[in-house]
Specification:
By secondary structure, the protein is an alpha+beta fold. It folds into two domains: 121 residues, MutM-like, N-terminal (N-terminal domain of MutM-like DNA repair proteins, Alpha-Beta Barrel), CATH 3.20.190; 124 residues, Helicase, Ruva Protein, domain 3. The protein is 25% helix and 21% strand. The chain is built from six helices and ten strands; from the N terminus they run αββββββββαααααββ. The strands form three sheets. The chain has a four-stranded antiparallel β-sheet with strand order 1-6-7-5, covered by helices on one side. A hairpin with a 2-residue loop joins strand 6 and strand 7.
């Protein structure tokens, strides 16, 4: 699943190019996770004002509202002029005066939803439960610690839930916990302020590095210009079960938490 870095890399790859474009047409393929929730013709003539990100959602601001775009499990956006003809897995196409924006989503777990405003109940239902953005000033380490003290769940599960801090998915949760030296199974409320401060910093470092390196292309991720990421090439623990830790040379271990694979170093990451 595309995580925060992949979504941000996607945004950066087409946001400036589509800004100011006028919508000429909209084509829908097979149904996605949620319906568009508006008449496609109502978007014709509207201007794309910009592209923002909230968690794993892209917010395409238009003259009279916004389109909330989620890439689902395997979705990817493409934008440009002269894109190849639509394929069977291309389920959303927004033709603009600056080029065509296309959502390719073989599993159809992604979505494009229209809302008249970000305060509209339709948008609030998707965005209202999200935690703070980890790369913005609102992500405060002491407040993060105070919130974690209220949870007995394993710290990795708290990160994946996204209610406290948004967008730290499976890959980056594993990598952040390694950098912070914290075992993924530790109960959140057992972490000291000092350990939470290290985790806070690790999350910001790992996500920042991932964005700089174009995200992780574990299967088929590419940005809107077709470029793949390479953060996975420097992963410390993720998908490295049985391989030696790059720090201490102990074998990396794998376990399953909440039906998701977790990777950690038993030597470097303390319970």
């Amino acid at each position: 699943m595309p995580e925060l870095p992949e979504v941000e890399v996607t945004r950066l790859s087409f946001a400036s190019a589509i800004a100011g474009a006028r919508i000429e047409n909209l084509r829908l393929g097979r149904p996605l996770r949620w319906p568009l929730a508006c008449d496609p013709d109502s978007l014709k003539g509207q201007v794309v004002l910009g592209v923002r990100r909230r968690g794993k959602y892209l917010l395409l601001d238009v003259s009279n509202g916004l389109l909330l775009i989620h890439l689902g499990m395997s979705g990817a956006l493409a934008f440009g002029r002269g894109l190849p003809p639509s394929g069977k897995h291309d389920h959303f196409e927004l033709q603009t005066t600056h080029g065509l924006l296309r959502l390719h989503d073989p599993r159809r777990f992604g979505a494009v939803v229209y809302a008249p405003s970000e305060d509209h109940p339709r948008a609030a239902k998707l965005l209202g439960h999200l935690g703070v953005e980890p790369l913005e000033e609102g992500f405060d380490p002491r407040l993060f610690w105070q919130q974690l003290k209220k949870s007995r769940a394993p710290i990795k599960q708290v990160l994946l839930a996204g209610a406290l801090v948004v967008g730290v998915g499976n890959i980056y949760a594993s990598e952040s916990l390694f950098l912070a030296g914290i075992r993924p199974t530790v109960r959140a409320n057992r972490l000291s302020l000092a350990r939470v401060q290290r985790l806070h910093q690790a999350i910001r470092v790992v996500l920042g590095q991932a964005i700089e390196q174009g995200g992780s292309s574990l299967r088929d991720f590419s940005n809107a210009q077709g470029q793949t990421g390479y953060f996975q090439l420097q992963a410390q623990v993720y998908d490295r079960q049985g391989l030696p830790c790059r720090v201490c040379e102990q074998p990396i271990k794998r376990l399953v938490q909440g039906q998701r694979a977790t990777y950690f170093c038993p030597q470097c990451q303390k319970p």
